[in-house]
Amino acid sequence: MTASSIEALAENTASALRTAEALLEGHFLLSSGRHAGRYVQCAKLLQYPELAAQVCAQLAAAVRQARAEEQPFDVVIGPAMGAVTFGYELARAFGVRGLFAERAAEGGFVLRRGFQVEAGERVLVAEDVVTTGKSAGEVVHMLRAMGVQNISAAAIVNRSGSANPFGDIPFYRAMDLEVPSWPAAQCPLCADPQVGPAIKPGSRPGLN
Ligand code: ZN
Prior knowledge:
Elements: H1 3-19, E1 23-29, E2 35-40, H2 42-46, H3 49-67, E3 75-79, H4 84-94, E4 97-103, E5 109-110, E6 122-130, H5 134-145, E7 150-158, E8 171-176, E9 181-182, H6 188-191
Parallel strand pairs: 3-4, 3-6, 6-7, 7-8
Antiparallel strand pairs: 1-2, 2-9, 4-5
The protein binds zinc ion.
Zinc ion binds next to helix 6.
């Protein structure tokens, strides 16, 4: 991919997220207890099939270009719930099967519902927002235990702060997003008298 096409993909994705009000600026209390000035909720983008299709088609085109392959995968799979919609739409963009893995009671992920992945298949693991990459990483672990060797990963938003939180497998994303966060006691937004108190995303109508 050229630098300009990566930039165009990121700009188009950010614009789609803003259109869907999925990318919020403000003063947020994260589930970790930290405070942040930004919040991204990809489900708000994915609720609009046209926007989701547009972002996934552009991401798939970028991946095909990067791999110099028209059909680089046989199946797309993501961890439920986060990746169910994204994985489905990305599978459509590649013209392949779209599955999801579910959390097992004993930890990790499993395939249910008669879903199957063959060891020889080329698999793309999809997660809408990659923060630590933990859930997608657990799906990678499940696939390796099934004998799958050709594994890549893809996200709409990479907010991990790293170019590839998966290390040894290829990782493609539509955009990188930096989300600086602080312990409450060190939050510069709390120190700013112009800014209201931190709110939990979703705790106010219109914010989720
Ligand atoms: Zn704060």
